[in-house]
Design a protein that fits this description.
Strand order of the largest sheet: 1-2
Strand content: 5-15%
Structural class: mainly alpha
Radius of gyration: 23 Å
Shape: elongated
Number of helices: 7
Number of strands: 6
Helix content: 40-55%
Order of helices and strands: HEEHEEEEHHHHH
Distance between the termini: 48 Å
Length: about 210
């Protein structure tokens, strides 16, 4: 039998090497780990308690990284504080005395904001799908363009797949917030089927 070598084996060895870092997490602190994407979180009504509990875990993780040779970069790390309170200052966390930036947090491709409004995530989706929409615009030329069947397939692959990723989270947003991405879907589908431009609002086009 031939053993695996090189890059195909590297990810498995990496996961084995970092597998024990979850032992550094303090009691009651929750975490999730997907490949090298590692997140810790804690829920409390008091900001000070959140800060103390999570900072303990961060300090233990920092020591673990020092002992194992791995490094946590404060600039590449992010912290976010979810709260409905007005003018609530977020807790400050540090790695090796360097403050972790407090901003929008991206987890597995979905951007979260402190109010869970989904606005930053939907704006990012709009930006990315707007660039992809140009491909469909070019191929939908009325004289030499592709057939509707192909354009719909492209829409499913390039646009709809992106719009539907994280649907369970995005649908928690208000209707006026969801309007951010509706025009992208409507425009691309209209181009694909050769339809005329109409203002649909929330009653947008659908296909199966």
């Amino acid at each position: 039998m031939e053993s695996r070598k090189g890059p195909s084996l590297s990810p498995k060895l990496f996961l084995i090497a970092i597998n024990d870092k979850t032992n550094c997490i303090t009691e009651h602190t929750k975490y999730n780990l997907f490949a090298d994407d590692f997140n810790i979180f804690y829920r409390s009504k008091e900001t000070s308690i959140n800060q103390i509990i999570l900072q303990k875990s961060i300090s233990k993780l920092t020591k673990w990284s020092s002992d194992t040779g791995f490094n946590f970069s404060p600039n590449k790390s992010q912290s976010i504080y979810f709260t409905k309170k007005i003018n609530q200052k977020p807790p400050i966390f540090k790695i090796n005395k360097l403050t972790i930036p407090n901003r929008h947090k991206k987890i597995l491709g979905i951007t979260f904001d402190k109010k869970l409004s989904c606005i930053p995530n939907l704006k990012l989706i709009k930006k990315e799908t707007s660039q992809r929409r140009n491909i469909i615009k070019i191929l939908a030329h009325t004289t030499w363009g592709s057939k509707s069947k192909l354009l719909i397939q492209l829409h499913k692959a390039l646009i709809r797949s992106k719009l539907e990723y994280g649907t369970e989270i995005n649908l928690s947003a208000k209707n006026r917030t969801l309007n951010i991405i509706d025009p992208i879907h409507n425009t691309c589908l209209r181009l694909a089927i050769g339809g005329i431009q109409i203002q649909f609002g929330r009653k947008h086009l659908h296909y199966s």
